[in-house]
Design brief:
Number of domains: 1
Strand content: under 5%
Distance between the termini: 18 Å
Largest sheet: none
Helix content: over 70%
Number of strands: 0
C-alpha cells in the first residue's frame, strides 16, 4: 500500500491501514485454502472485517461525505464492496477473484480516501474519527499504531 502523502501520521488512518494489512493477509489465506469452511483464517478474518467496516462506515465515510470529498455514487459503491465481500465469505465463495476485488477496494481507500482525509480534515474531524473508532472498538486493539 502507499504512503506518499503522510496520511499514516494520523492515528485513525494508521489504524485503518494496519487493519487493511491484517485483513489482506487473512483474506489471502482464505482464498488460497480453497475451502473457506475449513480455513482457520475465516473466523478472525470475519471479525477483523466486521470491526473495520463498522469503523469506516461510522467514521471515515460520513466525514468525507460531510466535507464534500466522497460523492454519493462512490459511497454507495464502497459500501456495496463491503457487503459483497462479507456475502462471499459467508457463502464460502471467496476465492482469488474476490481477494483481488478486496485488494482493489483497499487500494482505492488508501490512495483516494486517506489522502482526501489527510488534506481536508481539520482537528474536529480527526477527533470525531477517533471517537467513531472507539465507539465501534472500545478495546485498545490496533491503537498502539499511535505510538509508532
Amino acid at each position: 500500500m502507499c504512503d506518499h502523502c503522510g496520511c499514516r501520521n494520523f492515528a485513525p488512518i494508521a489504524e485503518l491501514t494496519a487493519e487493511h494489512e491484517e485483513i489482506l493477509r487473512l483474506a489471502w489465506e482464505v482464498a488460497e485454502s480453497g475451502d473457506e469452511s475449513s480455513s482457520h483464517s475465516l473466523p478472525p478474518l470475519l471479525a477483523a472485517l466486521d470491526m473495520h467496516v463498522r469503523k469506516e462506515e461510522a467514521g471515515l465515510y460520513p466525514l468525507l461525505t460531510q466535507v464534500g470529498r466522497l460523492p454519493a455514487a462512490q459511497l454507495g459503491s464502497l459500501e456495496a464492496d463491503h457487503a459483497d465481500t462479507r456475502t462471499a465469505l459467508a457463502r464460502g465463495e471467496f476465492g482469488r477473484n474476490e481477494y483481488y476485488a478486496l485488494a482493489a477496494h483497499i487500494e482505492e481507500e488508501e490512495i483516494e480516501l486517506f489522502s482526501a482525509a489527510r488534506f481536508t480534515f481539520e482537528e474536529d474531524e480527526w477527533e470525531h474519527l477517533e471517537e467513531a473508532h472507539r465507539s465501534q472498538d472500545p478495546s485498545p486493539g490496533l491503537r498502539e499504531v499511535k505510538d509508532r
